[in-house]
Design brief:
The structure is a homodimer. Chain A is of the alpha/beta class. Helix content of chain A is about 30%, strand content about 35%. Chain A contains five helices and eleven strands. An eight-stranded mixed sheet of chain A has the order 6-7-5-4-8-9-10-11, sandwiched between helices. In chain A, β10 and β11 form a beta hairpin. In chain A, α2 (about 30-45) crosses α3 (about 60-70). The radius of gyration of chain A is 16 Å and the shape is globular. Chains A and B meet through β3, α2, α3 and β5 of A and β3, α2, α3 and β5 of B.
Chain lengths: ~190, ~190
Amino acid sequence: MKLLEDRILREGVVVDDQILKVDGFLNHQMDVTLFVEMGKEWARLFGPENVTKIITIESSGIGIACVAAEQFNCPVIFAKKAASKSIAGEVYTADVHSSANGDLHHLMVSKQFLRPEDKVLLIDDFLANGAALGGMVELVRQSGATLVGAGIAVEKAFLSGGQRIRDKGVRVESLAKIKSLAGGKIEFC
Amino acid sequence: MKLLEDRILREGVVVDDQILKVDGFLNHQMDVTLFVEMGKEWARLFGPENVTKIITIESSGIGIACVAAEQFNCPVIFAKKAASKSIAGEVYTADVHSSANGDLHHLMVSKQFLRPEDKVLLIDDFLANGAALGGMVELVRQSGATLVGAGIAVEKAFLSGGQRIRDKGVRVESLAKIKSLAGGKIEFC
């Protein structure tokens, strides 16, 4: 998606070969006008699938997912991260090792809100090693709902996450796919 | 706001005299259509103030804030919670004791994104003891920006938070103000 790629080129900060900072418009300060256009693009790609639920993970996927959901006219569920397994009520759970800080998160979605008849689109800001997205795929599998696919803002295509998730048969649509950050230069696929 | 009050009466679950669960439409599963209407109401109330930034706190305020921001045509910043003070870059910080679980959170907003010339609206899902909102007020004060006010979805008016924040001279507009949850009955102000 050219709009997102141009914005990354203009305002993204390459920290090192692995890390791209986009906290001016994507995941600390959030440009909601950009999110609307991203939502329209995912609606173009996934619109015919009749999505009934969008799932994301706290925290930085939530804004993008909610604005995108306006295009799909469906609710968003955000999977909660918890350090402990002591939680109330019936939930689907998946353990996720964060690539950002190495922490183990215990993802949870209430069974009440995710049903076998649902058609689910996953949305997140980044796809790197695929740990978070893999956890969301696992939650959907547990529920028996249909997984329509995943809408990702920025995929680090030089890491294995995207391929690993696609190899599971999941349709992944990333709006900006980064081939390399080597030498401080952002190169798209 | 009648739409929100009606929804709370229909789907809210009174856990005890202090706790109201609204996770079917506000803070786990999120009804984005409802958020649009909430955004319109805050735009009606705060529109003349020329808001340039909306600030919220991760996680459950983010979706509401982003959808509301479409009405204000401005970006959203979400204050990050961190357990440690070891953070990179220049940030405004405020310590907040969570009333939900007693944890101490260290709120952070990058100085880069909050400027003295900004006119800031705070948005959050709940106002109870006012700890989170008080922390956001403190962040804005540090930046020298103008605080336009706070838009809250659900205020527990039987607790002291709202009064305490208003006593600081902050305009607080809560769309549903709960007078009491006694005896399992939801009563609005």
